[in-house]
Design goal:
alpha+beta, three-stranded antiparallel β-sheet, globular, 19% strand, 4 helices, Ribosomal Protein L30, Chain: A
Length: 102
Amino acid sequence: MLAVASVAPADVLPDQAADEEAGVADAWVTLVWNDPVNLMSYVTYVFESYFGYPRPKAEKLMRQVHEEGRAAVSTGTREQMEVDVQAMHGFGLWATLQRGGE
């Protein structure tokens, strides 16, 4: 008779760095685009009221939209960014979503 020894597999914890990289790779962003209609004060108001950003951050993002043509205003899962894009449309802003890092 042959004796067979069994070794239970060791519990392997996922590599945290790999998880963080995967999280970045899966991240999406909401982009708000400059438009000829909305006032800068209104765009600032939207960023404060919807995202809860403090005035300095909301103004910085508004200036980026105005001067550079767009700004990434939120980051998260695709589903979360779809909700944010729809909300921006509800406020009358031009917004799209894009995979992060592109």
